[in-house]
Amino acid sequence: MAETQKVILIGDGAVGSSFAFANVLSSGVGQELGIIDLNEDRVQGDVLDLIDVLAYTHPKHVYKADYPDCKDADVVVITAGAAQKPGETRLDLVSKNMKIFKGMVQQVVDSGFQGIFLVATNPVDILTYATWKFSGFPASRVIGSGTTLDSARFRQEIADTLNVDSRNVHAYILGEHGDTEFAAWSRSNVGGLQLYDWIQENSAVDEEELIEKFYKVRDKAYEIIKLKGATHYGIGVALNRILKAILHNENAILPVSSYLAGEYGINDIYLGAPSIINNQGIRNTFEMELSEHELQLFQDSAKQMRKILDEALAELED
Ligand SMILES: NC(=O)C1=CN([C@@H]2O[C@H](COP(=O)(O)OP(=O)(O)OC[C@H]3O[C@@H](n4cnc5c(N)ncnc54)[C@H](O)[C@@H]3O)[C@@H](O)[C@H]2O)C=CC1
Ligand SMILES: CC(=O)C(=O)O
Fold first, then answer.
1. 121 is in an annotated binding site
2. Is the domain of 164 the same as that of 81?
3. What CDD domains does the record point to (predicted)?
């Protein structure tokens, strides 16, 4: 990667602008941030507003960009497209956003872009797959935000229950970023102690209460959207975390949406799975040893997504 690391954001709505804010607050996660959106006034306004942050944070070149600017970018972050309305599921957005992505990804590729795509638009697993297909890039250079946000919600929920710091909770939500996601309970640990052992030793909660907490995590987006119309801070920070893992060549393990080629018995689909992220993109997606029930839930999630993906790809060809 070049010395000056350049990021282009496509989509400057609630999610995109929260990501941009997180990015200008954090030190050294790229030196350039160019922003593209159909709403050019919004971009111009956000650029002016974000520049006001720099004197109190870190230097960065923030500007209104266009597709040719993607040419020498290290990462293109996509948050553009339709968002859920109250009562809608993420999967209700498939048709609209697939069409938007076809044109958008083509324009990025036409610029000569050779970097890494990082996708957050919903349904994120389907649209990450679409970005991979439309771009013709190797799967390692197309990453979706996957279940990074869900896992952050899950870790915080467990941390609040046990009264510990969420940074010491290692726990993943895997599968679809959506209704068929599941908690990898059997692999969850707190400070190195298996979650189930911790619970037994501290009798903090019973198993039923824990399951309720998973439902709360799974349905949290619906709750926030009902209350304020969008969720954006959590994903903004999650995207910046993934971006940092790429630009700083961290080899960090994050449950991003990754292309599965046999892992967990799943093929040819993107889903949230723990993956090692560095400046090449996804270095490796590894197989955690899940319980039989968890593995079944993973495969069920994949089946459901495969069906939606096939329908969406067929519709696009009509
Ligand atoms: N992956 C995740 O964990 C999360 C994903 N999301 C998803 O992120 C997406 C964005 O959500 P919001 O920012 O709340 O929506 P928003 O409606 O506030 O912003 C979307 C932006 O995309 C722009 N846009 C639409 N078509 C475009 C095109 N062809 N080219 C350039 N810009 C275009 C719009 O002008 C708008 O500014 C949604 O699909 C939402 O469901 C939201 C939260 C979490
Ligand atoms: C909207 C969405 O995908 C989320 O907050 O999880």
1. yes
2. no
3. HicDH_like
